[in-house]
Amino acid sequence: MYEQLALYIDGEFLTGNGRTEQQIINPATLEPLGLLPHASRADLDQALLSAHRAFSLWRDTPAVERSRILRRAAELLRERRRDIATSITLDEGKPLREAISEVQTSVEHLEWHAEEGRRIYGRIIPPRSLNVRQMVLREPVGVCAAFTPWNFPLGQAIRKVGAALGAGCTIIVKGAEECPSGIVAMARAFHDAGLPHGVLNVVWGVPSEISEYLLASPIVRQVSFTGSVPVGKHLASLAGAQMKRMTMELGGHAPAIVFDDADIDHTAAMLARYKLRNSGQICISPSRFFIHEKVYDQFVSRFVETMRTVKIGNGLEDGVEMGPLVHQRRVEWMQQLVDDARSRGATVLLGGKRLDLPGHFFAPTVLTEVPQQARILHEEPFGPIAPLIRFNDTDDVLREANSLPYGLASYVFTNSIATATKASNALEAGLVYVNQIAVVAETPFGGIKDSGIGSEGGAETFDCYLNTKYVMQG
Is 443 a domain residue? Predict the structure, then answer.
């Protein structure tokens, strides 16, 4: 049932054959799934050279033909979605229904990029002289390097690959070694769709070694990374030193502000379930809950009630709504945050400890009376912990929401147009959701401040993959 793991370089799937191999573990059962080959230095050189060679062909391939191949790859992913999703559940841990949703969303993103890639336009600028023509052209930047996370192993890779290939670039992808199956399945879909050899390459290995080697190469002209703030800043410094273009989608600590005129029961239930999606391991997961004091008790009651009823277990079992954390380090981090909050006076209303199950399971956790000094209010939890905080003044809560260096997502719940407008204008975040939670292909996705540079999705998705060339012809 599990994907056959491999490197994908210059149109070939490469397995062990003397390479270093890493054992992949099911986080729900701790059972081995397979062996992942790591790229040697020679493999990385081959990936760079093949991407460089393929760029001259792919950039000159008509946009309509590039679109056809992307669409065919999307069709293959859709046809194979059950098998791909099963493998994602096995190595990442999320419930099967969430994994199927990830594959379906990935298909939508790829189809959207296939169509929008046909609409990358330049423009004509009216000249000051009749015998002059002034044109602006948009041209692909060249070879790209993409580094993707484990929480949405296929979805995050598709965003980068779709934008790069749709723009006419070639790309080398290094995904998260913990959860490699989705990216290997993606490579198989593009391979079977007829993508020219070298346009897409997939490598695995020690993250710091792979990233530093690829970024040092003059062949790579653009870098896209999704992951933690510290690693993103390090990669940005390496890219900046060589004037490489970059897109950085980094961490967040999303405030969710619930005003007293919101539909409290509906909002509490929706936020509780969204908080536990992928066990809270989502960069835009709400992680600081500010509740107006007039509705605080009602919200807490409904929120805890919803969390308490969530079925936890192996993601392949029927009815499971929350799976394990991806590895033991995540479990240890959850416990540290809970213990710190408790030691400072917070109340653990629900959960707060590891579950007595074979894998990396941590209980859905609700904290109340959390003091401002608690680490959970300052450091990204990336797990199923929800601190609930009272507020009574709009200006104060907006200042508190903006007080951290993060600026990825934020949430507002109110039935007042005036309040919604004030909050959405004031919040320092790349994404502001008012009474809704959704991420779709046609909208931009990205943060500000320490949460990143640039956007993926929407019309903005190609910006970092295209050079602007001005042509003046007399």
Answer: no
In a shared domain, residues 239 and 338: no
Give yes or no: residues 192 and 49 share one domain.
yes
Q: Which two tokens stand for residue 258?
A: 């619930």
Distance CA 429, CA 79 (A): 37
Task: Indicate the pLDDT class of residue 169, thresholds 50, 70 and 90.
Answer: very high
What is the three-state SS of 226-251?
Answer: ECCHHHHHHHHHHHHHCCCEEEEECC
Residues 86-142 pLDDT 10s: 999 999 999 999 999 999 999 999 999 999 999 999 999 999 999 999 999 999 999
Per-residue pLDDT at 1 exceeds 90: no
CA distance 457 to 160: 9
Distance of CA 382 to the CA centre of its chain: 12
Confidence of residue 75 (pLDDT cuts 50, 70, 90): very high
Regarding whether 266 and 144 lie in a shared domain, the answer is no
Instruction: Give dist(CA 286, CA 268) in Å, integer.
Output: 12
Q: Which amino acid is at 425?
A: N
Would residue 444 count as lying in a domain? Answer: no
Q: Based on the residue annotation, tell me whether 169 is a catalytic residue of this protein.
A: no
Half-sphere exposure of 324 (CA within 13 A, CB side): 30
pTM of the predicted model as reported, rounded to 2 decimal places: 0.96
Residue 35, CA distances (Å) to 15, 114, 177, 424 in order: 9, 33, 10, 47
C-alpha span between 283 and 136 (Å, rounded) = 36
Query: Is residue 283 flagged as an active site residue?
Result: yes
Which among 283, 400, 456, 464 is annotated as catalytic?
283
Catalytic residue among 3, 111, 178, 249: 249
Tell whether 358 and 286 lie within a shared domain.
yes
Residue 349 CB coordination number (10 Å): 17
| Pairing mode of beta strands 143-147, 170-174 | parallel
Q: How far apart are alpha carbons 16 and 4 in whole angstroms?
A: 11
The answer as to whether 439 is a domain residue is no
Nearest to residue 253, comparing CAs of 117, 401, 364? 401
Helix (H, G, I), strand (E, B) or coil at 92: helix
What is the pLDDT at residue 160? Answer: 98
Domain hosting residue 241, numbered range: 7-250+449-473
Q: Is the pLDDT of residue 429 over 90?
A: yes
Q: How confident is the model at residue 440 (pLDDT cuts 50, 70, 90)?
A: very high
Q: Are 34 and 2 in contact (CB under 8 A)?
A: yes
* Same domain as 263, residue 196: no
CATH no. for residue 185? Answer: 3.40.605.10
**CATH number, position 348:** 3.40.309.10
* CB distance 280 to 381 below 8 Å: yes
Is 2 inside any structural domain? no
User: Is 399 exposed, middle or buried (CB count within 10 Å of its CB: 0-12, 13-18, 19+)?
Assistant: exposed
